[in-house]
Write the structure tokens for this entry.
Amino acid sequence: GKWHMGVNCKSRRDHCHHPLNHGFDYFYGMPFTLLNECQGTDDPELAKSLQDTYWLYTQMIILAELTLLIGKLTNLFSVKWKIIICLAICGLLYFISWFSSYGFTKYWNCILMRNHDITEQPMDLEKTTSNMLKEAVLFIERNKHRPFLLFVSLLHVHTPLITTEKFLGRSRHGLYGDNVEEMDWMVGKLLDVIDKEGLKNTTFIYFASDHGGSLEAHRGNAQLGGWNGIYKGGKGMGGWEGGIRVPGIVRWPGVLPAGTVINELTSLMDVFPTLVHLAGGAVPQDRVIDGRTLLPLLRGAVQHSGHEFMFHYCGVFLHAVRWHQKDSGTIWKAHYATPVFQPEASGACFGRGICPCFGDGVTHHNPPLLFDLSQDPSELNPLSADTEPLSDTVMRRIGKAVEEHRKTLTPVPQQLSPHNNVWKPWLQPCCGTFPFCWCDEEDNKA
């Protein structure tokens, strides 16, 4: 499915970010992510969020380049030609990134790979659903006689909502509902294979989403990004419940009792230590592992999650902190920063396409906004000393937890910095002779 972590670091074939260089033995799917550009019928998605940034950097570099060039030619100041040339190359790259975002994204980003080889560029969306399902089924059948880990990251329930003709118009909730129904069907097909191969009672299955519904995704009046119910906010918002509260469904017949509902704080970070636990291993001891194994909680051996605090980030910025006060059962949440909605009361960032994590697109709160999620899950009524006698005590405890948490952090290179986001031709995966990157090897493989 969708890897979303990229491919290369220094050259077109180094594949440093590839799944096969991060512990997996087999890969079939998209190395990047699904975008409206892949279908070409909806408003550009990548372009919308990056075009303005690319154009701003292009203009800044052109201005700096002209200043240096004029200074050099008029002898106003001394500057090496090497610096002028390097700056010109940077400006050219940002200009190409801006220009290419208007049409080349489909050919350069919407690709399918099998292991290290590109099989489709651009990918054929009409065949993608059946291809993904077929690959997952074949993987289970190949590995049914030994322990295996299958990670299926579906392209469904994500714009541009690729839906096959069989499911179009089936749901009362439009194209998004159709897409959800097809995803449900795909999951059912995978469960059928597990059952048919006699693996039902020996297979731990975990179904979840990486974030809440995308409120800004729409086509006219049609909502394409889902609905977050009573919860405020959505995808891309680091703190509001609508962006981070997602379903978690577990199946393991004969080990975990069916129909059990657990109202405890867990996280997708818990997947890693849970898998290590299942495999009989031990998590690394030379670093802080934020996740906790889910097995004791799922089996009923403990009544509470291993998470007392949860730190909710937007990019590298801490936006909110959740405290599950075990002795009282109260769940407190403090917001240090929240996105600025556009329009103001809309509950989303329609003007920007996605809410930013910093800058003038967020409001910083001092003191932080405090909510009692046990009583106010919709985060409508921020508490104060006047309305909640414990507010000062709670904020001091949360503040201390943030201090302790930050002691565990170490600086790392910013993978989403402007330098790392700018398009680099020498890193572009290409199945032909760059820039003519077109191929379809799927029929040959079949």
